């Protein structure tokens, strides 16, 4: 049984508000569209609606995971830690007023709030740039967030040395360029990855894909509904609409 120390609210794409033992963590911030980059789903949270944050964690440097335009408007910049996968991203965050922005490397850990431990998990690379995933542990639960991860193998390596998680947030739309490898998991990889992690719940992220100039260069290969159809009886897929808060039922 998952203790009620977890809550999840999706804003859009991989931008999620996680509540862990009462501490709020924002993942992959994306609140402002561009003319060339659209969400394809309603925005579920505005940046002005966010509670005080224990941390902002970012998986990669793509604009729909790393919205500097929106982060300029975040309250509490001078006290909110921002964890990113590259030194350049940390410098840009500090230039915006995030005094506690820092690069975190694969395998590093941080106590981001009393009783909330974060571990940085390898999630492959986009070209030469590393992608981070994050595992969060509290006294009552474990949550895995991979906003930009394409393969199951890194999850197998992580699970080999760590306890099972309760909830996994993994991408499902299988986004890939017309020429080249898949950028994120499709529904079959997400279901397999959640099972490898030992999760009882999969919350799909990176699902919708807007119609914009970039969409002509990419295609998707699945949805959260496909993940639901693929999941076995031991995995509950929570297809969470943007803006709706979910917490486990004891």
Automatic annotation (TrEMBL):
Domain Metallo-beta-lactamase per the UniProt entry, residue ranges: 24-206
Pfam families per UniProt: Lactamase_B_2
Annotated signal sequence range: none
Superkingdom of origin: Bacteria
Family annotation (InterPro entries): Metallo-B-lactamas (IPR001279), RibonucZ/Hydroxyglut_hydro (IPR036866), UPF0173_UPF0282_UlaG_hydrolase (IPR050114)
Annotated PANTHER family: UPF0173 METAL-DEPENDENT HYDROLASE MJ1163-RELATED (PTHR43546)
Full protein name: L-ascorbate metabolism protein UlaG (Beta-lactamase superfamily)
High-level lineage: Bacteria, Bacillati, Actinomycetota, Actinomycetes, Streptosporangiales
């Amino acid at each position: 049984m998952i203790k009620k120390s977890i809550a999840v609210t999706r804003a859009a794409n991989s931008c999620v508000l996680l509540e862990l033992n009462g501490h709020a963590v924002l993942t992959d911030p994306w609140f402002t569209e561009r003319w060339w980059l659209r969400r394809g789903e309603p925005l579920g949270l505005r940046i002005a609606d966010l509670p005080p944050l224990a941390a902002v964690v970012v998986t990669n440097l793509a604009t729909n995971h790393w919205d500097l335009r929106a982060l300029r408007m975040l309250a509490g910049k001078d006290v909110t830690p921002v964890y990113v996968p590259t030194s350049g991203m940390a410098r840009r965050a500090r230039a915006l007023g995030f005094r506690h922005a820092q690069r975190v490397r694969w395998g590093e850990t941080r106590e981001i709030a009393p009783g909330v431990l974060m571990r940085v998990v390898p999630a492959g690379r986009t070209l030469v740039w590393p992608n981070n995933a994050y595992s969060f542990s509290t006294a009552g639960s474990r949550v895995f967030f991979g906003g930009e991860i394409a393969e199951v193998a890194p999850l197998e390596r992580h699970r080999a040395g760590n306890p099972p998680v309760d909830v996994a947030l993994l991408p499902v739309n299988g986004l890939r360029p017309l020429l080249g490898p898949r950028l994120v998991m499709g529904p079959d990889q997400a279901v397999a990855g959640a099972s490898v992690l030992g999760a009882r719940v999969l919350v799909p992220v990176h699902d919708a894909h807007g119609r914009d100039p970039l969409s002509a260069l990419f295609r998707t290969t699945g949805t959260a509904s496909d993940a639901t159809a693929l999941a076995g009886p031991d995995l509950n897929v929570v297809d969470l609409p943007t803006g709706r808060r979910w917490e486990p039922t004891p």
